[in-house]
Amino acid sequence: MICLSFDTDHMNADGMRRFLDTVELPGRGTFFLWQPFPDFDWGIHEAAPHPHFEDVRDPVGHFTDYFMELDMAVGSDTAPVGLRTHSCVTSHMISLAAAQVGCRYTSMTTRLGESGIKPYREPWGVWEMPIYYMDNMDFCTATNWPRSGHTPFDETLLDRAVQDDALYIFDFHPLHIALNSPDFEHYQSVKEHVAMGRGNPFDHAHPGYGTRTFYETLLTKMKAQGLESERLDILTPPKV
Q: Any idea which architecture 2-235 has in CATH?
């Protein structure tokens, strides 16, 4: 089972509309929102919070405020039940706070390219839905682990996901798909323009092989196997 999830960091409303209008998403996905997008209709997709922590001393209060703001923006009768923090910041207290504000799952740990990944139950009241693939982690791994022999955008990662019945959660950033980011350096070269709202990120796209190319390759392989994405909230085990 493949779950396509998207962290919306630094995307403005115009960029997200263009993403939803032009980027294919087979099945149902999960969008983790770094800010509310008022008047957006997420349709069949899940909308969940993606809060940025500047102070982790009061995660319950932080989550409560963020969830209330997101609820009003999304306008859904169903409160979000999932959470992925910005930069995947996590701790026991954050997991406990997530459960206290009504989350059923978090999705923060990243097991890049590992096989046999399964959800696991945190003692703090939530399920953790581990990430199989994250775009910026992929193209930064060779820098962080220079002797690992890691090659970004390795299609064997995709082949395993489409040929296996296990759970494979992908984490793409609409910003990196829009930019077609090939590496961290290209992202840094245009980040200031994007963050300051100087044009649509799609207008700064890398012309060669990059994140969007890799994403589209995944979709091609999914279609060949007749696969569609599923939302994380639907696949999360119930609380017991």
A: Alpha-Beta Barrel (3.20)
